[in-house]
Amino acid sequence: MLVWFLPLFLLFLMIGLPVFFGMLAAPGLVLWLNGQERDLVLLYRNVYNGMDSFPLMAIPFFMLAGELMNRGGITLRLVEFAQAMMGHLRGGLAHVNVLSSMLFAGLSGSAVADTSALGSMLIPAMERQGYTRRFAAAITAASSVIGPIIPPSGIMIIYAYVMGESVAALFLAGIVPGILVGLGLMVMVKVLADRYDFPVASARKSWPERGQASLKAFFPLMTPVIILGGILGGIFTPTEAAAVAVLYAVVIGLFVLRTLRPAELPEVLARAGLTSAVVLLLVGAAMAFKTVVSLSRTPETLAAYILGMSSDPLILLFLINLLLFVVGMFLDAGPAIIILGPILGPIFVDLGVNPVHFAMIMSVNLTVGLATPPMGLVLFVAAAVSRERVETISRAILPFLAVEVLVIFLITYIPAISLTIPRLAGFVE
What's the half-sphere exposure (Cβ side, CA atoms, 13 Å) at 9? Predict the structure, then answer.
């Protein structure tokens, strides 16, 4: 009977119950009906235990760093740098949107923060230049999924925590896939720009002007260098690196660029605290949910079912990609990783798939799900920022989703895309 918590959980999602409450209500109700009061107590105790982790402290720190840089005008400097480099192309602001997302990914690691921060600036600017609002919102949502792929990445910290992998290895493995998603989106923008005669954002900048824009963006662009350099150099742990990123953002905003005022800090802390609380509550609920998954022996049942479908790892990887893509439409990436990672990861590792490679397959697929209709979280954020309906954004985003799905399959079947940099750094054999 215990296995019925899964369809009950899906039912709760379909009727609109928030994911956090669905994760606790579905298994809790089934345990109560099954007379397992002791396991019911364990379920709710694990909500706190799931959040009580030093490695997970990196998530609120990275979110705070992103909020500090956004409020301090650092995001604007990244956009200006991107426009100096790519604004002269046809469809220039759309290219700028994608490149800005790639740069902003190195600061926050959050797709939602990317959509909110860049969308509030670039969607109105693109509309003024003649782009439709739905297209501007669609490219913003599509490019924002790069945020959790290029390091630092909140979902990769969660994956490493759940699966016992190296955070540094996952960060390094995400660099090339993230760049590949960005380049693929730019190719699609060029195709659409040539077809629909998109406007040029600005005249080609001279090299001195580009150099000036680069100097203005120097301190923001140093953030991922400090984070990755410190982690790889053994100077600090990923959690300590996140705290260093916060300190760096405060120093740059208050004393170097002087674009952040002390009076703004309480609001920044409140916003970062609220966002972090949502994420950590989901992680806690997902870890409790994982307890019931183990009690129900669902992993063993599902593993036997998957292995019974085929013995060819290539076919199984294709099928798992389809499963993850569907899951990503309805479930946020963090909870999905916590629930499905312990189930699917060991199956494919036993089949010979490198654990870091599988981490990238799962993380990138579920991240793209953030922009996938009907329940993609960044679609709703883009709709709120642009005041456009989710349905119209969903139609406009389809060409970009096709590119991202293609990149997912490239990552799946060409392991070197994910593993080359970690292997060169000594994290993968």
Answer: 27
- Closest residue by Cα to residue 6 from 292, 283, 284, 287: 292
- Whether 322 shows a pLDDT value over 70: the answer reads yes
Q: Is the pLDDT of residue 298 over 70?
A: no
Cα(227)–Cα(229) distance, integer angstroms: 6
Q: What is the CA radius of gyration of the chain?
A: 21
Give 352-365 pLDDT, tens digit per residue.
Answer: 899 999 999 999 99
Q: How many residues does the chain have?
A: 429
- Least confident range from 208-212, 231-235, 258-262: namely 231-235
Both tokens of 193, joined, read 């720009």
Question: Which run of H or E residues covers position 376?
Answer: none
Neighbouring residues of 271: CB distance < 8 A, sequence distance ≥ 6: 67
Work out the angle between the directed axes of helices 355-368 and 313-330 (0-180°, nearest 10).
Answer: 40
Task: Please state, in angstroms and rounded to a whole number, the distance separating the CA atoms of residues 319 and 323.
Answer: 6
Q: What phi, psi does 90 have (nearest 5°)?
A: -65, 135
- The token pair that represents 297 in the structure block: 């022996």
Q: Please give the backbone phi and psi of residue 303, each rounded to the nearest 5 degrees, phi first.
A: -60, -45
Q: At what angle do helices 92-105 and 111-128 cross, to 10 degrees?
A: 160
| Contacts for 224-230: CB closer than 8 Å, 24+ residues apart | 224/106, 224/107, 224/150, 224/151, 224/152, 227/106, 227/151, 227/152, 228/151, 228/171, 228/172
The SS3 assignment for 253 reads helix
pTM for this one?
Answer: 0.83
Q: Where are the domains of the chain?
A: 2-30+32-424
Check: CB of residue 189 under 8 Å from CB of residue 95. Answer: yes
Q: Please give the pLDDT value at position 83.
A: 84
Cβ-contact 280, 56 below 8 angstroms = yes
- Residue 110 and residue 427: Cα distance in Å, rounded? 24
| Cβ atoms of residues 26 and 8 within 8 Å | yes
| Tokens found for residue 428 | 């993968």
Which of 371, 401, 423 is closest to 176 using CA atoms? Answer: 423
